[in-house]
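Thread: "does anyone have the structure for this chain?"

Original post by V.I.:
We have the sequence but no experimental structure in hand. Need at least a predicted one for the grant figures.
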Amino acid sequence: MTRTTAPFGRRAACVSAREAYGAYVVVRCHDPAGIKPRAGQFYMLATAERWGGGEAERPFLPRAFSVLRAHEHELFFLIEDVGPGTRRLCELAPGEDLLLVGPLGNGFTAPGEGRIPLLVGGGVGIAPLAIWQDELGPYPPTRALAGFRDEFHAAGAALLSDATVATDDGSVGHHGLVTELLEDELEEPGERLEVYACGPPAMLEAVRAACVERGVPAQLALESGMACGFGACFGCVVPTVDGYVRLCLDGPVLDAHVLRTAATAGAGH
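Reply from O.Q.:
Generated one for you, tokens below.
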């Protein structure tokens, strides 16, 4: 368990900056009342104003987002506009308030003795890998593989250090899936890797299967739509070899070998 406990209740964090990386927006906010999160933990986010379908309509549920970076009391979140709620979050400008609860869940743990960390991300799934790369430190540099739809989305690779990129359309880097790059890495003789991955369910299932088949330890940050973040709604359950678990409490980071499949969760981060 690598959980940093969240302060009680929802609090306001003032947006300090908004930065664009191709298809993605990084929202930065000051959280002086918060506690520094661990890599892989997440927050439930909502805007203080215009958080809903319109006047006299019900407000949106908060959205769960992995923390991208944490510097002092400043938090960074990576967001893609995929619907009304994320669109409103992407619109946030400096001076507006972001309402948040967190950090929540369990994060990554250090690689085993003699193991070399390898990061594998897909799309917005690069978010928890960026803060983990920061925590692992620059010496020796932690290698990262990042997969995106196209060149526009691949601009997000700049948030990682020296990432090897794959794109579905071949517009940047390897033409194909990021898991193809992972397969090549796993075939390297003599390397004792430990894989850390986050991305869409199909990608995570491919990572899980490849690592389990070869006996390579892997920690997967699963994406899931979460309504509460506290385990009350049971909306984020996934099957493991020991039964069902709630990602918001027992995850979102889980060891690959305990999962029956990594393709059961819907996109949420």
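V.I.: this helps a lot. The domain at 11-104 is CATH 2.40.30.10 (Elongation Factor Tu (Ef-tu); domain 3).
O.Q.: and The chain is about 20% helix and 35% strand.
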